[in-house]
């Protein structure tokens, strides 16, 4: 059974409609914090979608009021998977996920339905298009948590925000609003939450474009 068709998945929900694979983080009580097992499932889902010729666009979003609060490090303490206690294995999972986003050949879109923190922010430059609701904010509190910057952000952030603002975000944990993020070109468009359906309507129109044309644009860039 394909993992994207697995009805037993609870932390990640998948649906396919008109050539669009909608991947939804589904831990609203935990602010959609991402566990190691979720990373593994996301990698498998993205890999399967590459092989599926009926899928043209992949969307990542979240259930509830948060897009994602980032990595769920607390889950490592209660995990039953021995690999989750091996720091090298954990790092390899993170690395594989980021590499999958970088190399992903189809159109990859994030619909940020609420606040994004940590990896949920730093992975966004690896998407082709990012939409956000007006209540969303973007925060990378790595220094406060005693963590190093992740998700290629020490490379992507200076290119997007400039050195000063990138440093403010990565080292000082500056919280950026959706409108400011659009100003810097970090996201494409800001929508009111109640108007988010406009995004889905627009994206369905994109599936009318041929996969070859989309591939050609991605290859050019």
TrEMBL record:
Keyword Transmembrane helix in record: no
A single MF term (Gene Ontology): delta(3)-delta(2)-enoyl-CoA isomerase activity
Q: Where in the cell is it found?
A: Peroxisome
Q: Which GO terms describe its cellular component?
A: peroxisome
A Pfam family assignment = ECH_1
Question: Any keyword Zinc?
Answer: no
Q: Tell me the keywords, alphabetical order.
A: Isomerase, Peroxisome
* Identification of the protein by name: Enoyl-CoA delta isomerase 3, peroxisomal isoform X2
């Amino acid at each position: 059974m394909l993992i994207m068709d697995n009805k037993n998945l609870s932390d990640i929900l998948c649906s396919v409609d008109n050539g669009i694979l909608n991947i939804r983080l589904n831990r609203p009580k935990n602010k959609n914090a991402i566990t190691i097992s979720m990373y593994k499932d996301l990698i498998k889902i993205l890999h399967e979608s590459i092989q599926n010729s009926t899928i043209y666009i992949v969307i990542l979003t979240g259930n509830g009021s948060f897009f994602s609060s980032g990595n769920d490090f607390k889950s490592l303490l209660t995990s039953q998977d021995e690999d989750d206690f091996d720091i090298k294995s954990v790092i390899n999972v993170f690395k594989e996920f980021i590499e999958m986003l970088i190399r992903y050949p189809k159109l990859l879109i994030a619909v940020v339905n609420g606040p994004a923190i940590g990896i949920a922010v730093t992975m966004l430059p690896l998407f082709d298009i990012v939409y956000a609701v007006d209540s969303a904010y973007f925060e990378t509190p790595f220094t406060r948590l005693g963590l190093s910057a992740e998700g290629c952000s020490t490379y992507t952030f200076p290119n997007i925000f400039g050195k000063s603002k990138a440093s403010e975000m990565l080292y000082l944990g500056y919280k950026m609003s959706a409108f400011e993020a659009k100003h810097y070109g970090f996201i494409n468009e800001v929508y009111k939450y109640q108007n988010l359906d406009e995004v889905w309507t627009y994206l369905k129109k994109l599936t009318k474009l041929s996969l070859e044309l989309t591939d050609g644009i991605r290859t050019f860039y």
